[in-house]
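Hi support team,

I'm opening this ticket because the web form for multi-chain structure prediction keeps timing out on my end. I have pasted the exact lines I submitted so you can reproduce it. The total is 465 residues across two entries, so I didn't expect it to be a heavy job. Is there a limit I'm missing, or should I split the entries? Thanks in advance, R.K.
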Amino acid sequence: MNTSFTKLTAAHIGKDMRLEWRSRDVFNSMLFFSILVVVIFSFAFEPTAEESRRMVGGLFWVAFLFSTMVALNQSWARELRNGVLDAYRVSPAAQEALFFGKCIGNFVFVAILECLMAPLFVLFYNLSSVGAAWQLVLILLLGTWALVINGTFFAAMSIRTRNRELMLPLLLLPVSIPAVTGMVSATTAVLTGESSPMTHIKLLAAYCVVFTAASFALFEMVLNAE
Amino acid sequence: MLRSQGQPPLSLLKDTEAPLTTDTLPVQAKNVSKIYGRTAALRGVSLELQPGRFYVLRGENGAGKSTLLRMVAGLSQPTQGEILIFGKQTREARQEIGYMGHAPLVYDELSGMENLRFFAQLYGIKSDAPLEKALALVGLDPRLSRRSGEYSQGMRQRLSVARAIFHQPRLLLLDEPFSNVDPESASQIANVLAGMRSSGTTILLITHQLGLLANIADEFLFLSAGQLVSRSSVPQATA
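Hello R.K., no limit was hit. The queue was backed up. Here is the completed structure from your submission:
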């Protein structure tokens, strides 16, 4: 009678997509925040193409790190509204499926945002990649997953605290430092072509594996914490 | 019958006519306490509920009614003691439990049927038939495409009842199902509960509106200051 983990995860993704399509409260806030970062920094620095290649990796990932945080609180807040999380907790469904579904849903939202924002970065910072494009795609995938897996986990942890908007950055940012360093260094390496990004990509991959495993192992405890 | 505060709790484990094994008892709470910081929400509550009976949990505000209900539902863990549902730990008996809390426990952006379809997947139910039946029972049209956030309070409450019963639980837990609803909706919900009791579901319900349940409820349990002080077949007032 129990639904498989895959089907439960798919049910959560479908539900999250439908809720987001109808409310647009997550995606709109992410999009406007990212656009503001791109525009404000481009006016503040007015960089040349060469300078852009060196700094845009950092700017790109910081923009997505902060816009992801804006979205993550919202994505859990809708589970708390009307006490829906309690309905899930009393059901026999695997609780990790909720977490995995949320992670994939958030990954899709951030990935769509990155696809929309990438042309803006190219336009405003006069960018062209010197390194291999496939490496850039790999960095995007791993970097986005690193942001989302940690962000979703720590947002679940902070959602029931009184100052959740403050608590999430306090928990998430220190833990994200190794991942952000890896993402920025790897992206800069590909854009400038000055060094190989592979060491940073491997670091990022290891980070994703470790934090995915840890988040899965600890999620049930976080969900049922009183 | 009632006991004053400070006295030890009554033992409310009842003898039954036919011997019941622990795995047929819908709820078995053994010396359950719940402590939040320095406050004891529940103190040494022991309780057995018999199958197919309708129990109403009563008591003043802050007596620990919702805490007890949440612990039976598995949403909160006892600080001390143990709760068994049909002889199993609560997490192993989730398929058997239907729960309705203070909040409606549904997504505002989804229609009634969309809500039930999502929750049905959590219980491994693929067919729409039990969902349509549950909605019809509470007087909601399954074809209603309006988002539940646009429902009236009474409709939301009835949807919440449908969400709690669509998987035909053997134990139904309801926290104030008649609050903020019009008399017609309240009466409709009471009729649904009466039907469920007749079909063998054990019901544990918190309410202050006893008039609706006078002819349906089998027993009234009284909580006071975190202790179960009496149980009675008549809805007497607490001290």
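A quick check on our side: Helices of chain A lie at 5-23, 25-45, 49-80, 84-89, 95-125, 133-158, 164-192, 198-223. Let us know if the file doesn't open in your viewer.
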